[in-house]
Design a protein that fits this description.
The protein is 32% helix and 17% strand. The chain is α/β, with parallel strands linked by helices. It has 11 helices and 15 strands. Strands 1-8-2-3-7-4-6-5-9-10-11 form an 11-stranded mixed beta sheet, sandwiched between helices. It has a 4-stranded parallel beta sheet with strand order 12-15-13-14, with helices on both faces.
């Protein structure tokens, strides 16, 4: 089993994490979004081991986590003014910037692309590790590739078992949804959101003063930017998931149950579901931010209960709701 730090972790745990990372080992770190499987981003063997532990495709880039915005010029060969504005406004925080890579960014980190993804996480424990480490940490979510992301240290232990040296327990993730990824490499004058997260298009536009595109217009085309979390089934739970409106939730769940499926309805408590037993539903928050915070934990509960189909009431498709729907 990996060593599990106490919660809250101590300065000795931070020292051990830094020593482990410098020796090429892997450490699971908490962030405000999800727990990350971290390795020294300048150590090719360490990063390749991250891919092996996760079962992640080698062409899929990973985010480099850094201690502050002053690291931008080391990892990116060009930093547009918009990137500096966003870093000043949202770092530390759930925002990842995609920029033209410098020679410091290894191919194994970027998936062989000419871009690198950078972020400063907003968690005191991980920031302390980053500052003491003094370099960048490649850190995708600490779960098997394609599985539900972890938002507690217990989730990590259940998913990765003995395959990492150390897990730092920083408590439950406060946001629970992956960072917003913004492409400022393809066209710095017209930023594009490649992955929706807690920071919305409106938030970005208020800082930049220009419209932000949603999605990669060149997706699938030669030269299109690949970013973490862009595959169709990147965060897939074990059960099938269907999103429905509140008005259709009960009828659809009942039809699936009548067909012999093990159905679990995830919906706010005020959504009626006549005919469903108490153990066939999980109450979810009403607001999209609340849903984002608990969505992965609820999907893990559904797996434990053996559900084959999870019926989820879709939140409004704006703000946090876009990330939940994705």
């Amino acid at each position: 089993m990996p060593r599990m730090s106490p919660s809250p972790s101590t300065p000795a745990d931070i020292d051990l994490a830094v020593a482990t990372l410098r020796a090429g080992g892997l450490v699971v770190l908490p962030t405000e979004t999800v727990y990350g499987l971290a390795g020294d981003a300048s150590n090719e063997l360490a990063v390749r081991r991250i891919f092996a532990v996760k079962g992640r495709p080698a062409s899929h880039p990973v985010i480099v986590h850094v201690a502050g915005g002053d690291a931008l010029d080391g990892w990116a060969r060009a930093v547009p003014e918009g990137a500096r504005r966003l870093a000043d406004a949202f770092w530390p925080g759930p925002l990842t910037l995609v920029l033209p890579r410098s020679a410091q960014a290894l191919d194994v980190v970027t998936g062989g692309q000419d871009t690198v993804a950078l972020r400063v996480p907003d968690h005191p424990l991980t920031l302390a590790v980053l500052r003491a480490f003094g370099g960048g940490l490649a850190a995708p979510s600490a779960n098997r590739f394609g599985h539900v992301s972890p938002t507690t240290a217990e989730h990590v232990r259940a998913d990765l078992g003995v395959e990492v040296e150390l897990v730092l327990d920083g408590g439950p993730c406060t946001i629970g949804v992956e960072s917003t990824i913004v492409d400022l490499a393809s066209d710095p004058a017209v930023p594009a959101i490649l992955r929706s997260g807690a920071i919305t298009a409106g938030d970005l536009e208020r800082v930049l003063g220009v419209a932000v595109r949603l999605g990669n217009d060149a997706a699938g085309a030669e030269g299109a930017v690949r970013a973490p979390g862009m595959l169709a089934a990147h965060y897939a739970p074990r059960a099938g998931v269907e999103l429905v409106s509140a008005s259709a939730a009960a009828e659809r769940a009942a039809a699936l149950t009548a067909g012999g499926r093990h159905v679990l309805l995830v919906a706010p408590a005020d959504v009626p579901a006549p005919g469903l037993a108490a153990e066939q539903r999980l109450d979810a928050p009403v607001d999209p931010a609340g849903v984002a915070h608990v969505r992965y934990a609820l999907l893990r509960v559904a797996a434990v209960r053996g559900a084959s189909i999870v019926r989820g009431v879709a939140p409004p498709q704006s703000g946090h709701g876009l990330a939940v729907g994705d």
